[in-house]
């Protein structure tokens, strides 16, 4: 899940980005270059802006999607339901305002309900759950009655495309589940689409489907290379740019739902190419409650959000607790046998996150970040920093810095 995801779906406020906001953002984006070694970058950025706690929900998945690098893991949780409850409560009391339950498939696990119960009782700001929606029909009512603030549904395209990636009959089960949930609930629903060779030509159809189903946002992010995924799905730069430009044109003609565009360091070339094409020249630069920066554009009742938070987020903004009570990062889990380090049940979340193991883990992430930008485009980072600076509100106390209420502001 990309770090600039709107997966939490907190209803909050955004304002125009001022000079101080830009300096903070630039310092994080530049940290990989500023310090001599990845470890130095890690030491200077670790736990910098913590606000999000991810609780990994193991137990396998009922699908094996071609672009997924987590679905093959078949394990049962080590922690009990009560431990999931206690860690959620501990996290919120330690300052983690936003709770996320990512894959594998949370609706397979009873532990999910313990997390949602704790999040509600302890007044989390936002609570996001990611699902393939195949089990959503039967879980819809219980989810609606829970502390959930946004449901993130994985969608790859219309029936023929979605089923080709995820398996026969999966689309119809998703469609039924989304229909049922929207029928009884006003809670936010987002779709998350990994853009690849199979679905690049149907992005507009996905966003139109979201509009028809009263889904709040259609979020898109480019496929990333991974040892465990089918890497032939990666999309060429030229085809990706065309697909996204077509999507933006449809949005501006009022033919889609609200849209979120996301990318990480290894795929930030997409946002850079779009910006260089002039696609965002009329967008406003905004910052949300968590300090994340976005380009924002309004079209009728819908909005476009473009994430500009390419720097790493794990151990800086987000802590992920693994199935054994350890800490890890999203991609780091796949490389470490899905095991984290330490045990937050014994040592606490913050203490474990301040350990040498956490610094080493973040140092590896900073190294990957630097490598990704080097492969991406030699001047991509310089260009996007200059682009963002050109949109900064130089008079933060002026009339242009008014607060805007946003339904579905991005927090992850």
Description:
This protein is α/β, with parallel strands linked by helices. Helices cover 39% and strands 18% of the residues. The protein contains 15 helices and 14 strands. Strands 13-12-2-3-4-5-6-7-8-11-10-9-1-14 form a 14-stranded mixed beta sheet. A hairpin with a 5-residue loop joins strand 9 and strand 10. Helix 1 packs antiparallel against helix 2 and helix 9 packs across helix 10. The chain is globular. The chain starts with 9 loop residues before the first strand and ends with a strand. 54% of the residues are buried. The N terminus and C terminus are likely disordered.
Output the keywords.
412 residues; alpha/beta; 15 helices; 39% helix; 18% strand; disordered N terminus; disordered C terminus
The count of strands amounts to 14
Shape annotation: globular
How far apart the termini lie comes to 9 Å
* Mean model confidence by pLDDT: 86
| Residue windows where pLDDT falls under 50 for at least 5 positions | 1-11, 397-412
Number of helices: 15
Mind describing the biggest β-sheet?
14 strands, mixed
Structural class: alpha/beta
**Oligomeric state of the chains in view:** single chain
The sequence of SSEs as H and E is EHHEHEHEHEHHEHEHEHEEEEEHHHHHE
Spatial strand order of the main sheet:
13-12-2-3-4-5-6-7-8-11-10-9-1-14
- The helix content is 25-40%
What radius of gyration results from the CA coordinates?
A: 20 Å
Strand residues, percent: 15-25%
């Amino acid at each position: 899940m990309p770090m600039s995801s709107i997966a939490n779906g907190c209803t909050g406020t955004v304002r125009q980005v001022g000079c101080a906001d830009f300096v903070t953002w630039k310092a994080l984006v530049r940290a990989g270059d500023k310090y001599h070694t990845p470890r130095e970058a890690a030491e200077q950025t670790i736990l910098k802006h913590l606000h999000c706690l991810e609780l990994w929900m193991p137990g396998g998945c009922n699908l094996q999607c071609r672009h997924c690098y987590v679905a093959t893991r078949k394990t049962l949780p080590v922690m009990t339901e009560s431990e999931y409850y206690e860690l959620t409560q501990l996290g919120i009391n330690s300052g983690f305002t936003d709770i996320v339950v990512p894959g594998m498939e949370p609706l397979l696990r009873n532990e999910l309900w313990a997390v949602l119960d704790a999040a509600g009782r302890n007044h989390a700001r936002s609570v996001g759950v990611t699902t393939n929606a195949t089990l959503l029909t039967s879980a819809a009512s219980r989810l609606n009655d829970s502390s959930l603030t946004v449901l993130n549904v994985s969608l790859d395209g219309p029936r023929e495309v979605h089923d080709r990636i995820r398996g026969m009959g999966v689309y119809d089960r998703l469609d039924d589940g989304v229909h049922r949930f929207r029928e009884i609930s006003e809670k936010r629903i987002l779709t998350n689409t990994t853009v690849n060779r199979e679905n690049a030509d149907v992005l507009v159809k996905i966003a139109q489907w979201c509009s028809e189903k009263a889904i709040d946002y259609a979020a898109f992010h480019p496929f990333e290379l991974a040892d465990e995924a089918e890497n032939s799905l990666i999309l060429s730069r030229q085809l990706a740019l065309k697909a996204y430009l077509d999507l933006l044109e449809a949005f501006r003609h009022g033919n889609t739902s609200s849209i979120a565009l996301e990318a990480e360091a290894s795929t930030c070339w997409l946002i850079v190419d779009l910006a260089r094409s002039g696609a965002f020249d009329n967008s406003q630069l905004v910052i949300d409650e968590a300090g994340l920066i976005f380009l924002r554009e309004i079209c009728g009742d819908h909005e476009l959000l473009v994430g500009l938070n390419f720097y790493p987020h794990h151990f800086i903004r987000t802590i992920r607790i693994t199935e054994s009570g350890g800490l890890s990062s999203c991609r780091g889990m796949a490389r470490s046998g899905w095991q984290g380090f330490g045990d937050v049940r014994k040592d606490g979340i913050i203490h474990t996150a301040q350990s040498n193991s956490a610094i080493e883990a973040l140092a590896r992430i900073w190294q990957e970040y630097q490598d990704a930008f080097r492969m991406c485009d030699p001047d991509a980072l310089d260009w996007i920093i200059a682009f963002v600076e050109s949109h900064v509100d130089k008079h933060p106390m002026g009339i242009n810095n008014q607060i805007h209420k946003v339904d579905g502001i991005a927090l992850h």
